[in-house]
Design brief:
The structure is a single chain. This protein is of the alpha/beta class. It contains 14 helices and 13 strands. The strands form three sheets. Strands 4-3-13-12-11-8-7-6-5 form a nine-stranded parallel β-sheet. A two-stranded antiparallel sheet has the order 1-2. A hairpin with a 2-residue loop joins strand 9 and strand 10. Helix 10 packs antiparallel against helix 13.
């Protein structure tokens, strides 16, 4: 699969997630089999570009190509300028966010709130595509609510504007992350356009990925929360799609090493004080479905230094050897992962 000139190694993608898909996490997902990963969204408001958070989100040093940045906003010229700003700093693909359902985003008429205004959608897409000489893609939802689904019209507007790939989450803005994603709309969009379409929403297992690809005819799948704490789901899905066979659960020792590498990269990226605090959620996701994981998470959240965190994680995963050489998830973990979007 291609996005513009970029040949991707497979069709298993990682979704942009605010506060999650920073550079260390994207790198890890790519290392573990993701064919493509998009950064967490960058605000188009130029007054925010120099903030510490925005500067960190623009950091792609050493990242595996292609380097994709998602931008969000409601003013066409601001988004065009933001796209140019990011391309000048290394972005090779620009993704426009019209899918975020979070209230503070939609209250600013950004994210999926834009789907209510098709004329503004057209202006934004035209402006961004004209502003940069790299591929521009769009991530969106099926509509504002179930009574107002307009994904087909948005898809046609996007194709006419020169958008080179569509990612469609099978929920409306009003749905948030509740209920089950539907794939009929994704199938209809795929049938109506000639550009690649990526299916997103509730893809949590290799079998579900295969089912969604078959049901929608989509070119790729995008994994969201199912990758939190289980980034190796990317290689599991890729392997299953290629061979029809399941990979075994990862070895405890492998995950122990991966976590050490991830945390070290995370600390280097954020610094000691912020790194310890932002690492807590990642550690919690890694252990949430493992035996003793909840008790460990509560204790780990009290630790205040990188050294303490690293040591605690090392001891916890050493304890997992008493159950098996491979990770042993609690039975409830399968249903819990089904909460992912």
């Amino acid at each position: 699969m291609h996005i513009g000139p970029y040949l991707l190694r497979n069709n298993v993608f990682v979704a942009p997630m605010a506060g999650v898909t920073d550079r260390p996490f994207r790198q890890l997902c790519k290392q573990l089999g993701a064919g493509y990963a998009v950064s967490e969204m960058a605000a188009s408001n130029p007054r925010l570009w120099a903030t510490e958070k925005s500067t960190r989100r623009l950091d792609h040093e050493g990242e595996m190509e292609p380097k994709a940045v998602q931008i969000a906003g409601a003013v066409a010229q601001d988004l065009a300028d933001c796209a140019k700003f990011n391309v000048d700093r290394g972005a090779q693909i620009i993704d426009i966010n019209m899918g975020c359902p979070v209230k503070k985003v939609c209250n600013s008429w950004c994210g999926s709130a834009l789907l209510q205004h098709e004329d503004l959608v057209e202006k934004i897409l035209d402006a961004v595509v004209r502003a940069v000489d790299v591929p521009v893609t769009l991530k969106f939802r099926t509509g504002w609510n179930r009574e107002n689904k307009n994904a087909l019209r948005i898809a046609r507007i996007a194709e006419q504007a020169g958008i080179q790939m569509l990612t469609l989450h099978g929920r409306t803005r009003a749905d948030g992350y509740q209920g089950e994603a539907e794939y009929d709309t994704i199938a209809a969009v795929k049938a109506s356009v000639r550009i690649p379409v990526v299916a997103n929403g509730d893809i949590t297992t290799p079998e579900k990925a295969r089912l969604v690809l078959a049901q929608t005819g989509a070119d790729a799948v995008m994994i969201g929360r199912a990758a939190q704490g289980r980034p190796w789901i990317c290689r599991e899905i890729d392997h299953f799609l290629r061979t029809g066979e399941y990979l075994p659960a990862p070895l405890v020792d492998e995950v122990r090493t991966l976590m050490d590498e991830h945390l070290q990269a995370h600390y280097a990226f954020y610094g000691e004080f912020l790194g310890v605090r932002t690492a807590r959620k990642h550690i919690g996701w890694y252990v949430r479905d493992l035996i003793g994981g909840e008790e460990f998470r509560q204790q780990m959240n009290l630790l205040e230094s990188t050294e303490q965190q690293l040591r605690a994680v090392d001891v916890f995963f050493e304890s997992q050897h008493s159950f098996d050489e491979r990770l042993q998830y609690r039975p409830a973990s399968i249903s819990q992962v089904a909460l992912a979007a």
